[in-house]
Amino acid sequence: MSQNDLINSALSQSDTGISQLARKQVRALTPYQSARRIGGQGHIWLNANEAAASGEYQLDCARLNRYPECQPPQVVDRYAAYAGVSTEQVLVTRGGDEGIELLIRTFCEPGQDSILLCSPTYGMYAISAQTNDVGIIDVPLSTERQPEFDAIIAKLDQVKIVFLCSPNNPTGDLVDQAGLCRLLSAAKGRALVVVDEAYIEFCPSFSQASLLADYPELVLIRTLSKAFGLAGLRCGFTLANPQVIELLLKVIAPYPIPEPVAQIAAQALTEQGLAVMRQRVADVNDLKTTLGLQLSQHSEVKEVFAPHGNYLLVRFKDGAALFARMAKAGIILRDFASRPGLADCIRITIGTPAEMDAVLDVLQQEQ
Ligand SMILES: *Cc1c(COP(=O)(O)O)cnc(C)c1O
After folding, report:
1. Residue 290 backbone dihedrals phi, psi, to 5 degrees
2. Do 207 and 294 fall into the same domain?
3. What CATH number should be reported for the domain holding residue 181?
4. Which of 203, 234, 269 is the last residue of a domain?
5. 315 and 345 in contact (C-beta within 8 Å)?
6. What's the domain count of the chain?
7. Considering 221, 252, 269, which residue would you say is the last residue of a domain?
8. Beta carbons within 8 Å of 100's beta carbon, 6+ residues apart
9. Backbone angles phi, psi at 135, to 5 degrees
């Protein structure tokens, strides 16, 4: 079926009353199946790559009568210092997701331009493209789960933005830097290359931030939702050359960052906040190593994927049965079995030691 056939068949199912008034593209849309939307019954939530606990923060409500700054200076300054870039290379957004959306809205002509992504990967690139009537070209990851750089370069004339994710959600793999540099050279003046580094704090030496100085087409997506333990805050960052940031600033809402968000983000980015984050990362990485080892020795496990984020993607002999057993025990995981190449694969967020023990207990149980 062509994309239009798909849209029309989706439309015929729901085209009554008020919904007829909405844009055709929106009527046909299936919203992002976020962990929250999928939901589930359970007391152990290991399905959204959230941190196990958040920190303690102070709020000063004295200025809530005033509109906030579009770009809170303290947050910009501290994030720039943390990321090793200049303040003109930083945009603060409502989560990393808003950065993805803004890039598409700023650089892609609706009904005309396309983005490129490498499945299986994070779902929001496709959702944001579809919402904005922007096409999607999929160049699936290789069997070694690397971007097919030659195939991507061959398609550069057909796309405005290439989305890569490193560590990739859900597979955990890192993008090869030599390949990335080759792509960036080929993309010169033709397309942006976005590297989504939402999980980079769990393997900071693999950040591509040092390439920003040499490649003006490179854009990085960052977030406070994962290693900083602040998914509820909705604060993310786009790092790019100042020209890209200036264009994004034309499109972003006038007051995107609520004052309480700015205050808490600024605290999370102090020396002390960064130390807390680094300790959280060290704890998660320790637990991940232990869990990975135990899983890889288990008879029901076929494969443990790359361990570079705060999660492990695991291929079980029977993923559906395992998912159901976990759910029955109140442990909510994320099922990726329906994605190409990910049959029987389930993603497990690294939570507390007790939560990891609970996962292993269920796995150990006689069936
Ligand atoms: C979580 C995540 C993001 C951004 O999440 P926000 O909560 O919107 O900051 C971006 N990319 C990937 C790959 C993610 O997993």
Report:
1. -65, -50
2. no
3. 3.40.640.10
4. 269
5. yes
6. 2
7. 269
8. 124, 125, 128, 163, 194, 196, 221
9. -70, 160
For residue 204, the number of C-alpha atoms closer than 13 Å in the C-beta half-sphere is: 10
Secondary structure of residue 113 in the 3-state scheme: coil
> Could you please report the per-residue DSSP string of 221-247?
EEESSSTTS-TTT--EEEEE-HHHHHH
Q: Please give the pLDDT value at position 17.
A: 84
Has residue 366 been placed in a domain? no
The answer to whether the beta carbons of residues 201 and 228 sit under 8 Å apart is yes
Confidence at residue 273, expressed as pLDDT on a 0 to 100 scale: 98
> Model's pTM, two decimal places?
0.93
**CB of 101 sitting under 6 A from ligand 1:** no
pLDDT of 306 above 70 = yes
Residue 331's H or E segment, with its range, is: strand 331-332
Which ranges of 94-241 would DSSP assign to H, the alpha helix? Answer: 95-107, 124-131, 149-154, 177-186
Verify whether ligand 1 is closer than 6 Å to residue 215 (CB atom): no
Pocket test for ligand 1, best of 223, 257, 308, 310 (most atoms within 8 A of CB): 223
Is the predicted pLDDT of residue 6 greater than 80, yes or no?
no
CA–CA dist 231, 235 (Å, integer): 8
Alpha-carbon span 365 to 325, nearest angstrom: 10
Residue 291 class from Cβ within 10 Å (0-12 exposed, 13-18 middle, 19+ buried)?
A: buried
- For ligand 1, atom 14, the nearest C-alpha belongs to 198
